[in-house]
Amino acid sequence: MHPAPHKLPSQPLPPPPDGTELSDMQETAWIEVIRKMEEVYSDLIQYEVELETKNRALEEAQRFITSVMSAMSDILVVCDSKSRVQQVNRAFCQLTGLDEAGLIGQPLRHLFAVEDEGTVSRFCGRVGEAVRDCEVRLKARDGVTDPVAVNCSTRFDTAGHPAGLVLLGRPVGELRRAYEALKQTQQQLVQSEKMASLGRLVAGVAHELNNPISFVYGNVHALQRYRTRLIRYLDAVHSDIPAAERERLRRELRVDHMLADLDPLIAGTLEGAARVSEIVKSLRRLSFPNVGEPERVDLAAVARTAAQWVAKGGRSRTEITVDLPDGMVVRGQTGQLHQVIVNLVQNACDAGDAVWLTGAVSAGRVRLEVVDNGPGIAADHLLKVFDPFFTTKPVGQGTGLGLWISYGIIRDHGGTIEPGNRPQGGARFVVDLPAG
Questions:
Q1: Do β-strands 319-323 and 329-332 pair in parallel, antiparallel, or remain unpaired?
Q2: Which residues contact 211 (CB under 8 A, 6 or more apart)?
Q3: Cα–Cα distance between 374 and 392 in angstroms, integer?
């Protein structure tokens, strides 16, 4: 508690020490001196109170700043204008295992691994110039730390002059591991969606395989019957039976018909086997990641196959009309483009009972449109349809990844895919690719 200011005396001032009497003018001057002293003393007390208030505010601000620095998960290093360490935070000490007291006053470059000192020296001299995402390692009690991504900014004094550096850093080890995990998860999701698309087409593929396999199976049975007859006829010929008997057996076994039928039976069997081989190749292109250089792709042929598979594999009675011109050749990966078209056609079939695929080639571009007669796309969904996990289908009936994956595939092929609505109703997706 501070002493209260002095009060003016209520009794007349005592006479001077020499005993002489004061004149009225002298007494007034003496009183004025005392009053001025009281004013000065009062001002000093007021200044002291204000100073203590400001000190308390400064201490609170200092405690607040210290608590913030201690709570930071990123490392913090503050340096003066000569790049000497003035302060480090708790995260820095925890990461390196070093004590703050032993770091104060050291050159900034001494905090970093020897092989990184040259890098640090370069931005130590850049007072007034920011440095972004410089990857270095710090000295630690047990060696060096994992790589740290450092950002360096200039600190200014109250006059606006450069006063030093502030470094913020974050270990990139965990970030890199998280990024790799995210990439792996993304690849798994993409592959899962691809396999889900493949699963939706299994019924159509089974139908496609059933036709040539049934044809081959029937032809093989016919060849087996012909083989039995031919063996019987050849055995009779080798037994030297009479010519008349041999001719009768030839007519009975229909040897001439069998010989004439062998060529078409063999050709049909080979054609069926080739068809099965093509279907299996198409399945492999869908089931496994595409590798190698881009190839010339007949987009119209890919679209026809995709539409056929969706139609035969779907549960709905959607009518799919394909009206595509020749010459729709692009460069890319057949399997990936097939996946995009399957996705667009499948979505169109889910939305309406009629779907049209049209296309055009103009000015070095190939354009493919997939249109349906469904309710169309809501205005507030047009900007969201390519967002991952966005779907308007009920839970369990859609992953929300199909259009997102399709967008990425078309973008990687140097093209665009645009959603929209037809004036007469229904959704429309337009794929635009550079001609190959």
A1: unpaired
A2: 275
A3: 14
Report the amino acid identity of residue 335.
G
Q: Is the pLDDT of residue 120 over 80?
A: no
CA distance linking residue 350 with residue 316, whole number of Å: 8
Contacting residues for 172 by C-beta, under 8 A, at least 6 apart:
135, 146, 147, 148, 149
Q: Count CB-CB contacts under 10 A for residue 276.
A: 17
Strand partners, 435: 330
Q: Are 432 and 365 in contact (CB under 8 A)?
A: yes
Contacts of 153 (CB under 8 A, 6+ apart): 130, 165, 166, 168
Asked if residues 364 and 434 have their Cβ atoms less than 8 Å apart, the reply is yes
| Tokens standing for residue 168 | 């913020």
Return d(Cα 160, Cα 149) in angstroms, integer.
28
Is the separation of the CB atoms in 313 and 204 below 8 Å?
Answer: yes
User: Under the phi-then-psi rule, with left for phi > 0, alpha for psi from -120 to 50, and beta for the rest, what region is 215?
Assistant: alpha
CB-based contact 324:359 (threshold 8 Å): yes
Tokens for 140, please give them: 């630690």
- Looking at per-residue pLDDT, the higher value among 80 and 278 belongs to 80
Tell me which of 3.90.550.10, 3.40.605.10, 3.30.450.20, 3.40.50.880 is the CATH number of domain 72-175.
3.30.450.20
Q: Model-level pTM greater than 0.85?
A: no
φ, ψ (nearest 5 deg) of residue 363: 50, 45
Q: Which of the four CATH numbers 3.30.565.10, 2.40.100.10, 1.10.3720.10, 3.10.180.10 does domain 295-434 have?
A: 3.30.565.10
Q: Which residues pair with 323 in a beta bridge?
A: 358
Rounded Cα–Cα distance for residues 27 and 34 (Å): 11
Helix H or strand E segment including 320 = strand 319-323
Q: Which amino acid is at 24?
A: D
Is the distance from CB of 184 to CB of 103 less than 8 angstroms?
no
Per-residue model confidence as pLDDT tens digits over 320-367:
999 999 999 999 988 788 888 988 998 888 888 899 999 999 999 999
Classified as helix, coil or strand, 37 is helix
Enclosing H/E stretch for 165: strand 162-171
Residue type, 76: L
Boundaries of every domain in the chain = 1-67, 72-175, 202-287, 295-434
